[in-house]
Amino acid sequence: MEYRNLLFEASGRIATITFNRPKALNALNPETMRDLSAALREAAGREDIGAVILTGAGEKAFIAGADISEMKSFTPMQALDFAQAGQEVLSFIERMPQPVIAAVNGFALGGGCETAMACDLIVAADTARFGQPEVSLGIIPGYGGTQRLPRLVGRNIAKELVLCGDMISAQRAFEIGLVNRVVPAAELMAAAREIAGKILSRGPTAVRAAKMAMNRGLDLDLPNACALEASLFAAGFSTADRLEGITAFLEKRKANFIGK
Ligand code: CAA
């Protein structure tokens, strides 16, 4: 499928979705969010795709946030619709079966930082910058930033970032646990593909269940989260991949998973 503001490329079981409005630093306007929703659903529905990478076109930005010019005339009800629609798209990243890796190549601000945080892992170029600068515009984050950031980095660090609205370096983002890896800019996509390739070599049904256990479990109290884990653990014993993975280990050979 063709998208206006995104590039969608599939290669070797990895789909790469590239935000492609470099003149506006890949800011998220409603059309881009509709494209993103459709592209994620396309990837989720394709059995030949086992992992997804999100990145930004150009060297400057991953995503510089929601499109500020589009927000200027919002009424409160339009702002509510805007936030809920964006949150739904980003929540789908957490619900979709494949792992999603953010390859952050530059500014990841506001809705850009929020998009990265909805992904399963974040790899950043050493030149990337992260932040939730909304308070500088007199508004608050609307795509989940006040909720995912404290869950990822802890309440007080999140408050400093959201209340001061400052940008931080990729290295600082790594230190606070927002980012998994920082690599030289030229190696960003190779690093993201290497992680995706490693995940693709593992049991696909197990990877899917593990993502679900962690994403759903983090919204539950510990007894219910552990009950969810036990159910998914048990369900894994109905798969051919479980038989293959355990047999391959015992036979001292590489597993040949089929994703069933
Ligand atoms: N929306 C719309 N356009 C944007 C944009 C945004 N979020 N960010 C940058 N642009 C546009 C600029 O207006 C500019 O366009 P023109 O060339 O037509 O003037 C172009 O991209 C290049 O930007 P700058 O000239 O500003 O580039 P810079 O290098 O001087 O600064 C920057 C880069 C620090 C990222 C700066 O552009 C900036 O601060 N952008 C806004 C960041 C921001 O506040 N994001 C949060 C948005 S609100 C939000 O996201 C709410 C939410 O939770 C969903």
How would you describe this protein?
The protein is of the alpha/beta class and 260 residues long. The chain has two domains: 6-200, 2-enoyl-CoA Hydratase, Chain A, domain 1; 204-250, Lyase 2-enoyl-coa Hydratase, Chain  A, domain 2. It has eleven helices and ten strands. The strands form two sheets. The chain has a six-stranded mixed sheet with strand order 1-2-3-5-7-10, with helices on both faces. A four-stranded mixed sheet has the order 4-6-8-9. Strand 2 (14-19), helix 1 and strand 3 (51-56) form a beta-alpha-beta unit. Helix 1 packs parallel to helix 3, helix 4 crosses helix 5 (145-153) and helix 5 crosses helix 6 (155-164). It binds acetoacetyl-coenzyme A (CAA). The site of acetoacetyl-coenzyme A has 22 residues, from helix 2, strand 6 and helix 4.
Task: Please provide a brief summary of the model.
The chain is an alpha/beta fold and 260 residues long. Helix content is 48%, strand content 16%. Bound molecules: acetoacetyl-coenzyme A (CAA).
Keywords, please?
single chain, 260 residues, alpha/beta, 2-enoyl-CoA Hydratase, Chain A, domain 1, Lyase 2-enoyl-coa Hydratase, Chain  A, domain 2, six-stranded mixed sheet, four-stranded mixed sheet, 10 strands, globular, binds acetoacetyl-coenzyme A
Question: Secondary-structure blueprint of this entry?
Answer:
Layout: E1 6-11, E2 14-19, H1 30-45, E3 51-56, E4 61-63, H2 68-71, H3 76-95, E5 100-104, E6 107-109, H4 111-118, E7 121-125, E8 129-131, H5 145-153, H6 155-164, E9 168-169, H7 170-175, E10 181-183, H8 188-200, H9 204-217, H10 222-236, H11 240-250
Parallel strand pairs: 2-3, 3-5, 4-6, 5-7, 6-8, 7-10
Antiparallel strand pairs: 1-2, 8-9
Helix pairs in contact: 1-3, 4-5, 5-6, 9-10
The structure holds acetoacetyl-coenzyme A (CAA).
Residues 24-25, 27, 64-69, 86, 107, 109-111, 114, 133-134, 137, 141-143, 145 line the site of acetoacetyl-coenzyme A.
